[in-house]
Sequence to fold (260 residues):
Amino acid sequence: MEDDRLVIRVPVIAANWKMHKGPTETRQFLEGFLPGLHGDGGSPEVVICPPFVSLEAAVAACEGSPVEVAAQNMHFEEQGAYTGEVSAPMLVELGVDGVVLGHSERRQDFGETDENLARKMVTAVSAGLTPILCVGETEEERRSDETEAVLSRQVLTDLAELHDEQLERVVIAYEPIWAIGTGLTASVEQAEEAAATVRELVRTRDAEAAEKVRILYGGSVKPENAAELLAPADVDGALVGGASLSPEDFAAIVAAAPTS
Ligand code: PEP
Fold:
């Protein structure tokens, strides 16, 4: 069963750089990081998510390597009067492979809604971008036993406009908000339980997609805790913030991913 899982679902280790690293630092990071990467068949998929202005540098530096590049947000429309926004076709033109959608910092600080996200998910998948959809509860919601209800609302609404056959192309990151950038991590049991809940929610849409969709854990993943957090059967990788800013630490997290 375990082996089947690894063959079907290649782990994903993604670096969310947030508002760090302009083009020069992006190139420097990748010069240090890429040579140590072993891109053989048993390796996880590695994704770098730099700020918009560094995407072009990242795409150029990653050319010929197995590393993929994703943006950290995008608009749901293809073009229009949306000052300061970036569209899916623009990202595709740059050679970007994916996009993080619904990160809790965007939900909490920039008014991102599940309704908007439902539209963004369709736009991303239709453009050929792999969305990394972030979901997760606040500390208060966990304390009041609302985690499952929050995940249910987010996952079902955010995926609502995708056709069933598009679901397997989605990556979902379970990121408890209380563990992001705080140094606190979910316990292995909490990560496992939430990832299983997310998979069951996808199963209510489509059983085959539920087996194929990759579900990541995010929240203070570090070289020291990566192996145990990546071990549960339903956890298919990690979305890494702070520790992904160091090429050495990020490489150590990539090395901790289970091999297929
Ligand atoms: C994130 O921002 O997605 C994240 C998981 O951050 P950190 O690893 O720093 O908690």
In short: Strands lie at 12-16, 45-49, 68-71, 98-101, 130-135, 171-174, 214-218, 237-240. The longest strand covers residues 130-135. The domain at 45-76+86-213 is CATH 3.20.20.70 (TIM Barrel). Confidence is low (pLDDT under 50) at residues 1-7.
